[in-house]
Amino acid sequence: MDTYKAIVSKRDVRHYTDQPVEGEVLQRVLQAGRMAGSAKNSEANRLMLITDQAVQDALVEAGDFASWIGSAPLIIGFASPAPLLRLFDVGRQAQNMMVAGHAEGLASCPVTLQHADKARAAVGLPADWEMPMIITMGWPVADAPDSPLKRERVALEELVRHNTWS
User: Fold this and answer.
1) Which of 11, 116, 133, 144 has its CA 20 to 30 A from that of 86?
2) pLDDT one-digit tens code per residue, 91-145
3) Nearest-5° angle of CA 135, CA 139, CA 140?
């Protein structure tokens, strides 16, 4: 799949098979995250690969909209020392990984963790670290239902402004 097609066809998916994500496919996804840029080239984020069901179940409590995340064969957490946390960097890294995974046939979905203390406790992070976001990843089920929020994208003519707002 070429880059443009991978970007424009990627959709968030919350239904996965039990097949693990491993080997060369996982390495390519991780490498895509490693190669994302970071503010002042700090590379402060660390990736947490979470496959243990008990840890996944504990992470459910860290997000307001995370009840389903324990069904993914892989959760990737983005952890950073609190003073160096740059959400833009987390997003860049996550998007690289999700697009790379999609190009490999994987499905994924980003999830915000609103309760830092619960996220920290679930994965054993030090007190001065945060994990504000995870992505779930796995092989998609063939008959996944459409999202109830599925709709047409905003047209480019509505999305883009030139030079000034009006």
Assistant:
1) 11
2) 999 999 999 999 999 999 999 999 999 999 999 999 999 999 999 999 999 987 7
3) 95
**What's the full length of the chain, in residues?**
166
CB contact at 8 A, 16 and 139: yes
Are 136 and 14 contacting, i.e. CB atoms less than 8 angstroms apart? yes
Closest-CA residue to 130 (of 93, 94, 87, 96): 87
**Per-domain residue ranges of the chain:** 3-159
Question: Using an 8 Å Cβ cutoff, are 57 and 118 in contact?
Answer: no
Residue 155 structure tokens: 């047209």
DSSP E strand boundaries for the chain: 46-50, 74-81, 107-112, 129-138
pLDDT at site 66: 95
Alpha helix segments (H runs only) across 46-140? 53-60, 87-103, 116-123
pTM across the whole model: 0.93
Long-range Cβ contacts of 3-6 (<8 Å, 24+ apart): 3/99, 3/103, 6/99, 6/100, 6/102, 6/103
